Amino acid sequence: MQLIAVENLQDAPAPVIRVGTVEFGEAAIARETPFHPAGSLAEAQLQAARALVVRELLSQRAAMLGLPALVDAEGQENDQAMAVLLERELRVPEPDDAACRRFFETHRQRFSEPTGLRVRHILLAATPEDARARDAQYRLGQKLLRQLIDGPGRFTELAQRHSACPSREQGGELGWLSPGQTVAELDRALQHLPVGLHERPLASRYGWHLICIDQRREGRLLPYAQVAERVRHSLREQSTRRALRHYLLALEAEIGVEGLRLDADADGSLMR
Asked: Is the Lyase keyword given for this protein (predicted)?
């Protein structure tokens, strides 16, 4: 079972954190920090400290129950042992059909069939910091677009000659794309384009894209019967996250944690 992150509202970790009788100092936090990329070093350190606390709470609980160690002698986590512990300890109610139907009616867009686009592209690669390359590739893109307007059947040829994307081997074919399946800045633009060859290169962090949308399949709402299992899975995940937060806070109170709180607003936020 994958461990679900528990939110931490504290500003920064203390120099020394204690879980029961086990202490974590700056060195332990520093070793863990690279595994938690964040917007700032302070946030990454906080996430690292939180991860250490959660891991230690669970490890000590497993030891109390006589279960296999969650971390081996070399410091590697035992995912199977973690799953055994959480499956034994967490009480996650199974959502009934009425709850599933209420959730579905409230979140129908989440369970709709998204708009699909059948797309071809030519990627003219240039990194954001290389202004000269981006300018040169943009001019090349304009030239290629003029060639494609005069000869639409040349897309495969030009993709194979110029595209930096592996899709060049398929003539630039990306197949059917749904929202979220390509780089964010290109994904946003694609949703608003009509069928056909787009008149100008589109920018992304990878360079410039010449885009041709061959088909557009509009999204549609799906009936409950078709998505019932997805709805049930979503509710089960929500219940699991809630149960895990309760469980960790109970362990925090029972074992004792100094220098960091798992949830500074636990009383008011757990059930939201």
From this structure: no
Q: Same domain, yes or no, for 247 and 164?
A: no
Q: Which domain holds residue 138?
A: 116-217
Locate 257 and state its tokens. Answer: 């944690």
**71 and 138 within one domain:** no
Domain assignment of residue 231, yes or no: yes
How many structural domains does the chain have? 2
pTM over 0.85: no
DSSP state of 216: E
The residue among 139, 192, 191, 183 whose CA lies nearest residue 165 is 183
Task: Find the helix packing angle between 224-255 and 97-106, rounded to 10°.
Answer: 100
**In angstroms, what CA-CA distances link 170 with 118, 166, 167, 190, 204?**
13, 8, 5, 20, 21
d(CA 87, CA 102): 27
Over residues 1-50, the pLDDT tens digits come to 344 444 443 445 546 899 999 999 999 999 999 998 888 898 999 999 99
Half-sphere exposure of 93 (CA within 13 A, CB side): 6
Which residues are bridge partners to 208 per DSSP?
Answer: 124, 203
Question: Do 207 and 122 reside in the same domain of the chain?
Answer: yes
Question: What is the C-alpha separation between 87 and 89, in angstroms, rounded?
Answer: 6
Question: Could you give the CA distance from residue 241 to residue 231 in angstroms, rounded to a whole number?
Answer: 16
